[in-house]
Write a structure and sequence with these properties.
heterodimer; A: mainly beta; seven-stranded mixed beta sheet; 11 strands; B: mainly beta; globular
Chain lengths: 107, 127
């Protein structure tokens, strides 16, 4: 199975900060990568698909980039609603795998 | 608006069985592949199983292969997960998720992510 590794595991930031989360795949997945946001007690929510395509309704402060094995999720100006856990997911194979998650906390 | 509502979770003893259901509405259910994803308490997301729109192809994580069976009823707009020989490590919130993407599974060109999720149902395996 393709392993997805996110860094950091936890990130402390303030409102207005620019935040970057990295996701690395154990082998090339082209651009077949999605990003999800999850808040406590809630279902995950799709933010980004195909590495850089913004899901409808998602604020433009979220952006994704990368291809091959290295990907990033960037929040250009962190808002109070953005404190959550973020997961990357590869969908290059029919054994979908997620990163371990990055928790964005209030500094 | 897409709605996915899971049900069927609960407390079951190790070795027991449980059947989860996911009722779908707001989209043409028969046109989309569907999935189950789980999350153990305090842990990350783990893909469990997927089924194509016509049930031609079914996929399972190694951790559940041979114990869990995914199925769907397009006439009832419902997705199911039959879970047998349950273990303590199967304790988790189980989410139903709709696929989005393109391509075909028969030639391995399919590339699908999960664009809509239900709120989940908790399965607890404990004696």
């Amino acid at each position: 199975d393709i392993q997805m590794t996110q860094s950091p595991s936890t990130l402390s930031a303030s409102v207005g900060d620019r935040v970057t989360i990295t996701c690395r795949a154990s082998q090339s997945i082209s651009s077949w990568l999605a990003w999800y946001q999850q808040k406590p007690g809630k279902a995950p929510k799709l933010l980004i698909y195909r590495a850089s395509s913004l899901e409808s309704g998602v604020p433009s402060r979220f952006s994704g980039s990368g291809s091959g094995t290295e990907f990033t999720l960037t929040i250009s100006s962190l808002q109070p609603d953005d404190f959550a856990t973020y997961y990357c997911q590869q969908y290059n194979t029919y054994r979908w795998t997620f990163g371990q998650g990055t928790k964005v906390e209030i500094k | 608006e897409v709605q996915l509502v899971e049900s069927g979770g609960g407390l079951v003893k190790p070795g027991g069985s449980l059947r989860l259901s996911c009722a779908a509405s707001g989209f043409t259910f028969s046109s989309y592949s569907m999935n189950w994803v789980r999350q153990a308490p305090g842990k990350g997301l783990e893909w469990v199983s997927s089924v194509t729109k016509s049930s031609d192809y079914k996929y399972y994580a190694d951790s559940v292969k041979g114990r869990f069976t995914i199925s769907r009823d397009n006439a009832q707009n419902s997705l199911y997960l039959q879970m047998n020989s349950l273990r303590a490590e199967d304790t988790a919130v189980y989410y139903c998720a709709k696929s989005e993407g393109a391509g075909y599974f028969y030639d391995s060109s399919a590339r699908y992510y999960f664009d809509s999720w239900g709120q989940g149902t908790l399965v607890t395996v404990s004696s």
